[in-house]
Amino acid sequence: MTREVEILLVEDNPGDARLIAELLKDGPVEHRLQHVSDGVEALAYLRRHADYAQSRRPDLILLDLNLPRKDGRELLAEIKNDDTLKRIPVVVLTTSQAEDDIYKAYNLYANCYITKPVDLDQFTRVIKSIEDFWLTIVKLPAK
User: Fold this and answer.
1) How many domains are contained in the chain?
2) CA quadruple 36, 61, 129, 94: dihedral positive or negative?
3) What average pLDDT does the structure give for the chain?
4) Which position among 70, 99, 109, 112 has the lowest Cβ density within 10 Å, counted as fewest Cβ atoms?
């Protein structure tokens, strides 16, 4: 991909958000990572409301499920039911290993479901795998 990739990270854990940003920072793909901490803020960003009027449409969304105000399941449903947003790939990146969450995420048209490992080395491998697959192998839709 020759253009800068826009990534929206929807994550309420500041430590995980910092770690993801750090791991993506030195990657091979030129990107901009935007971070919001809950589903309400994510929708404002995606719909360019209020403080996000100048936001760029993301090429990829990394979505935690367990969020304050509007959880990731609700946000995923709204994204995939919105004709202007539904083609943005959504990678669910969460601590939940519950079969019900996995099933529900795919029923809501998540593009993939990844459980966050607690081990730092494994977490690093997961983020690098996301980067390798979604930012170098996959052809993302043009704006």
Assistant:
1) 1
2) positive
3) 91
4) 99
C-alpha torsion 49→52→138→70, nearest 10:
-60
Six token digits for residue 28: 């091979």
Q: What is d(CA 31, CA 135) in angstroms, rounded to the nearest whole number?
A: 9
Cα separation, 34 vs 45, in Å, equals 9
Beta-carbon contacts of residue 83 (< 8 Å; ≥ 6 apart): none
Structural domain contains residue 143:
no
CATH number of the CATH domain containing 120: 3.40.50.2300
Let me know the angle formed at the C-alpha of 2 by 131 and 115, rounded to the nearest 5 degrees: 15
Question: Does residue 88 lie in a domain region?
Answer: yes
Considering the domain boundaries, does residue 142 fall inside one? no
